[in-house]
């Protein structure tokens, strides 16, 4: 195979596979092809795609934000607490939730940039901290209307319907709000990382931090920006989960970390990028979503789903790193 | 006289043909029904699922099982997926009402019938299958009073928000009012992929902090498993007794183990409840009304009785105790049992 054709095949591999999946599943189960099902699939991956975008940005600077799952889960609790206990409205709650995510991003950045803790370790530690912290204000109980607080009194607020519509409404009766948010986030982060100078600097830092510093990049500030973005996006994901679940459930968001990291890694294979990229992460998330949805429609046992996710990840990484080595 | 006899013969003929001819859409096999569960792990749900699958097979139903894996957003999406798949009815097995009410209504609007098991969706059009949770808690607590008198200190395992646990909790609250000597010293509990292990860790902490506890009321078998594990590890198995709800083959073994602190449970056969749920879904899909509240009655199983009867599995228990092994809820002439 000539090098050009090879390169073309590598670049288009994920898209070709995605098309093959869509065709295959539609033939096997006609119900798969409906617009409603398509929107369903996109909606089911929207939170993972948003979190994966954040992880991608943190990977661009050579770091790795392992706290995104815990930030999303904590944001669910923060939103629920704000509405049920403090009786805040939808707008105030969303603002508070995003501020919380940005705050955690700042703490991550402080640990990494100021104290000097390696990225992976700092964010992992924050992950554990948040997982525990979210349980303390309510003494481990889930937050729903009528919650009995540790002080003994009953919380009198409830989830604001405007807030719930963030996760449940469909624009024009068709497009779910979370899907539109995923697309908006994807476009914004894509433009930031691929089309602006700041994006190039972020990747420069990821490639060689010392060289970037010597070339004049404000490494500390850019790294802080990366973690702020990651934390903020994770909080946005948490808001969507809270809006969908309608309750401050302490077990929501358990699988978000692994799923978003997997999507980001599958993104390495998309368009043969071999580096963190937002388009790839979102396509990766959608790929896994389509695969699992199709398999479910075909009545493949649910307990094989994690195996399938893992196989896809191994395949994508093999494709990315294995094929590339034979470059002429 | 002869006319009466003729009509008698007619009726007999009709009933036999009615048994053979199922109403649409069940006259052809392959009707799709979805079972969407919130909790996938644990004996109860596995037994429930196998009972549902067995009943579905007898009716020629293609039962699609969606596991929630304890994730509320997954459960929502699976209900939407089931509607997209074109199922005639959905059985929703546990879950968080706040995240399910609107999706269930959407399913109803799309013409799909919905049956709820142990989750209160507050909807007049959604029949609820339940295990008479009030009776489950009542019989367990009455046995506790028989064994321990009217004054003892209790560690209570409970997680708010699950309809069956909430119903059992109502009975517990009434009991405490009725018997002021029964004091709840500590309350703990967790529901996740490893419920028993998490509850065991919590129980160990609670028991160390409150050595005066003599009874643990754990109205769910995974909770009781966790409590028993903790008592074994702390060496308190002879000082504290565990009372629970639900039963499974593994539970029977743990109850009848030598020196086990798990002295009583009140239960229905989860497989029977699963079968009843599918029957109710089939009735609803066929256009019949299964009624709004479908109850499966539980029986009390004490450690003593189980040991004496030598029963080791749920199947043997069903065979020995007909009240446990069968339910007459949600039946019709055309539904094979």
Report the C-alpha radius of gyration of chain B, rounded: 22 Å
Helices of chain B, by number, come to 13
Integer tally of domains of chain B: 2
How do the helices and strands follow one another from N- to C-terminus of chain A?
Answer: HHHHHHEEHHHHHHH
Assign a percent range to the helix content of chain A: over 70%
Query: Which strands sit side by side, in order, in the main sheet of chain B?
Result: 2-1-3-4-5-11
Average pLDDT taken over every residue of chain B: 87
* Proportion of strand residues of chain B: 15-25%
CATH homology superfamily name of the largest domain in chain B? Response regulator
Number of helices of chain A: 13
Biggest interface: A-B, 31 and 30 residues
Beginning-to-end CA distance, first to last residue of chain B: 36 Å
Question: What is the oligomer described by this structure?
Answer: heterodimer
Shape annotation of chain B: globular
Q: Percentage of helical residues of chain B?
A: 40-55%
Query: Going across the major beta sheet of chain A, what is the strand order?
Result: 1-2
Structure, briefly:
Chain A is mostly helical and 328 residues long.
Structural features, described:
The complex is a heterodimer of chains A (328) and B (337). With 328 residues, chain A is mainly alpha-helical. Chain A has one domain (3-324): ABC transporter involved in vitamin B12 uptake, BtuC. Chain A contains 13 helices and two strands, in the order ααααααββααααααα. Chain A has a two-stranded antiparallel sheet. In chain A, a hairpin with a 3-residue loop joins β1 (170-171) and β2 (175-176). The mean pLDDT of chain A is 88. Chain B folds into two domains: 7-130 and 270-297, Rossmann fold; 133-267, Rossmann fold. In chain B, the strands form two sheets. In chain B, strands 2-1-3-4-5-11 form a six-stranded parallel beta sheet, sandwiched between helices. In chain B, α2 crosses α10 (270-285), α5 (133-148) runs parallel beside α6 and α7 (195-209) packs across α8. Chain B is globular and about 60 Å long. Chain A binds chain B through residues 29, 31, 34, 36-37, 40, 43-44, 47, 140-142, 144, 159, 168, 241, 244-247, 249, 251-252, 254-255, 293, 296-297, 299, 302-303, and chain B through 40, 62, 64-67, 69-73, 76-78, 80-81, 84-86, 96, 98-99, 102, 159-161, 190-193.
